[in-house]
Amino acid sequence: MIETVTPTGARHLTLPGASPGRLRARRQRRLAIILLVAVALLLAAAIAAGLHFQRSSAAAAGEREAVRASAAAAAAAIPELPPPDLYRPLSPEEAQKLNAERPVEAPTATPALPFKLRADEISRLRAIDCLTQAIYYEAASEGVDGGRAVAQVILNRVRHGGYPNSVCGVVYQGSQRVTGCQFTFTCDGSLARTPVAYLWSRSRLIASEALAGRIFAPVGYSTHYHADYVVPYWAASLDKVAVVGRHIFYNFRGSAGSKAAFRQGYAGVEPSVQLPMAEVISDSLDTLDNVTAPSELPAEVKVEEDRVEALAPAPQIKSQDSSPLEADLARGQLILGEATPGATPKPKASAEPTCRSGPVQQVRAVESAVKRVGANGVGC
């Protein structure tokens, strides 16, 4: 080793015969080797990532294909059922007795998975509207649990390969036919009836929470239900799962009713449904200033019993001119404005506008579910 001292006093050790040029060449070679190793490592990482992506893509494609195959198998496994509105010729009392005697085949139903709606704003509002209509017209008189049970059945069908993969598609399936509609309110003229405001608001809250992921575990994966005062011919072909209020819930037997059958993907888009329905929701029974307009309700809202009770109007003394409210037990719906049995209808003032008589189709269809009646509002 040779020690050299620079004019500034710095000392350097060099090998005998080593020149500054050779030292620089050695450093450059070492740097080049390091760079080559780094490039090789980067290439190896890129190749590994590409192979992993290919495997992941293949696995995802295989999973999607398995879901499609499962949905197709579920659709193929659905038994041929009699029309939904074909009932055995029994009196309500006989039907209730027969329904009560039949045991529940699945006393511990498997809870369905949460359904969280992922769609654009228009489809989200359409889904809430369709589900609200089904809950109200099918279970307005059944309380909160009755509404949640109906909502669960509809969302179960959305996931089942044998049904449409959208909320409105399920609710209005077969509604364009005289017979064959899956939910009778879509084809029997019920949509022309004016809903009761606070019950409609409650139904919309239940629909919003169901589409935000809340499940109703007691009915499990049920896809069918009927009132306890009728016995449809199709009921004998399905398993009785639960009883909620006056509704009895059923699921398919075998593979068509298994958890694997409910793997159909959501469409992501809701169809536009143009059917006659009431244009306004009247609050003529009571003052409902505390009811939130459905358009202002949050997407994820929790319906609790005290919240529901707050929506109901305070009891008032019924005057002679008040409009009577009756329960249509044949459909489980609340009807505004029908006369009580034996009562003489009060003649209307001549200044009051009259509505044309005729079929339901004369009621103008509206996309939005609610318009409050104002001071100058007129509704037919």
TrEMBL record:
Residue spans crossing the bilayer: 31-53
Domain of life: Bacteria
Pfam families per record: Hydrolase_2
Domain Cell wall hydrolase SleB span(s) in chain numbering: 142-250
Record's keyword annotation contains Transmembrane: yes
MF GO annotations: hydrolase activity
Keyword Membrane attributed: yes
InterPro entries named among the record's database cross-references: Cell_wall_hydrolase_SleB, SleB_dom1
Region (Disordered) location: 338-362
Key words of the record: Hydrolase, Membrane, Transmembrane, Transmembrane helix
Name listed for the protein in its UniProt record: Cell wall hydrolase
Species in which this protein is naturally found: Sphingomonas glaciei
